[in-house]
Design goal:
Helices cover about 35% and strands about 25% of the residues. It is of the alpha+beta class and about 150 residues long.
Length: about 150
């Protein structure tokens, strides 16, 4: 669903203007719906989910985790710990909680990177640092996908 990289800056009130290139990728019927932001589990970035995508994640969690199992209950709690529902304001801006921005070292400039059903939010510096070496990337793709004879099926 989401494609592209967009550099944005926090305004004086800590809001980001949602890039028009990403806005155009949101179905018209979903433009009024909030997004959910969550700290990523593996990387120093935030994940921005459209409400429908977030609801899909929650359905999977409910099917796989039992809240009466202590380990599962802890996973459920920690998964929700660093998340917030974000409505757009009238100018299509988002106010991301300062704590979440601080947790991933975003203070002004950031990259919004479309990743199919979600958008990753990175500090510009960290995003550039995370880029995989081209030769390593090619080798990994070849190892993982190169022997898949059913790739296009």
């Amino acid at each position: 669903m989401f494609v592209g990289e967009y550099i944005v800056k926090l305004d004086a009130k800590g809001r980001i203007a949602f890039p028009s290139g990403l806005k155009k990728q949101i179905p018209a019927e979903d433009l009024e719906k909030p997004f959910v932001v969550k700290k990523d589990i593996y990387e120093p970035c935030l994940i921005l989910y459209p409400e429908q995508e977030w609801d899909t994640h929650m359905s999977i969690m409910k099917r796989k985790l039992n809240p009466f199992n202590r380990v599962h209950a802890r996973i459920i709690r920690d998964y929700h710990r660093d998340s917030a529902r974000l409505p757009f304001d009238g100018s299509f801006r988002l106010l991301i909680p300062k704590k979440l921005l601080d947790d991933v070292n975003i203070d002004k400039e950031m990259v919004l990177a479309g990743q199919e059903g979600k958008i990753e939010i990175w500090s510009k510096e960290e995003y550039d640092k995370q880029r995989m070496d081209q030769e390593v990337f090619a080798k990994n793709i070849e190892e993982i996908l190169g022997n898949d004879t059913n790739f296009y099926e």
